[in-house]
Protein 1
Amino acid sequence: MADLQRQLQALSDEHQKLETELQEIVQAREKLESQQQENKSVQKEFNTLEDDANIYKLVGPILLKQDKRDAVMAVDGRLDFIEKEISRIEKQINDIQEQSEKMKIESPPMGASFPLAFGLDDIETTPSWRLRFPLDIQHSEVNLGHSGAE
């Protein structure tokens, strides 16, 4: 009995860990997708500029003049890096989802032993309303707005 409880708790803990990890990875992917959109906007803006246009890069509190070719290469490089990172994160997401599915398949069958693991050995004979209400309410009369005479 206690062994099943420990096993279920371990599975629950592992599943919770996977869910937390998945949330963190999804947030990282969302951040990368936001950066990707920003860089694509910059890339589109560069495409509208003349080759001799003045481009400035913010470095700390200073604006430094930058050649268009260098600026385009830097943005293209960032986009390439971001796309690779998104692909890597997508693979991590798929791996975690596969792990979660594998855990569901490998988890012990609950069947009749599930209630026993939690001390609910009389669950089959206990009416469901008794499981929901405290003892002091179970045996008291409740007036639901109906009179005894109809």
Protein 2
Amino acid sequence: MGRKSGPKIPWAEILVSRDAWILTAGINNGVSKLVGEGISHYRLLQEYPNKVKCIGMTMWGTINENTRLELKSASNGFPKPLCERHIPDNVQEYKETIERNHTHCILFDSGRLNGYLNDSPRHQFVIEACKHKDNDHSCYAVTIIVEGGLGTLEVVENDIEEKRPIVLIQGSGRLADVLAMLVEQTSNYDRNQHRTPSDQEIEQALGLFFHSASYSDASTVKGQIKKILQKEHRYLLHIFSMNRDKNVAETIFKAIFTVTKERKKSELPGQEEQFRKDEDKLVDLALEWNYFDGILPILQARQEEIIKMQRETIATGHGSEKVRP
């Protein structure tokens, strides 16, 4: 996520108007900048009144000294001596600032200058957010990978561990394109048969989107990618092609629906009622997003259940008549 310019992703409408919480790295660079500016432009052009919760998560030592001084000075009761510059002018530091269109920014302090945040804080944040459920509310976590460096592999691994769906924006570059290419290379047309990519296929994909100098431990990277692309994980990976697909909402909803459907396969006896409630919430979500095609698989499955129950009832009735004295 280090580029100063990047692809224009048609995400603003789906994220802004659907009451989503958006988590980014929060800095005025790369994808975080695109997200912040995209949200701001959408709200301005559409005269959208609500503020979208866009939360940046980064390191205190990542942002530059001027930004740190500005934040210190704006804090009530902060000791004045600490509001003075402490970094010598000859010390090189990152030039990052906080992206101003984010509504919140959480800063983590490791006591070190420079360096970027690992995925652990985001991972734990999402886990806690998704715990808060009731009959009227559910939290659906979806990770959207736009571009991304090799450090983003940690993000994808954590999401797979928690069975969170991932949308790869194909055409945005770097890791998103590497994984999307390998998914397509190692799947059949219907995406229901998969194989593990070979080392050569992974090396070729990496060579197209990364300079060899950008990753030193090639064996570790290849191992991470192979783990991510194991057959049992493929239902979590979804591709939105910037050259082919039109509707990001459709891809995101399919990602959520597929995970819900897979969860049903492993449900225990007595969980049918809860799963039906979860499906009802998905129907509400599809209606809220004006994505009516998303309702069809649920309604068709329920119609098939009703027909099956009717047939079983009729068969039972005929059986009773036969044994009647």
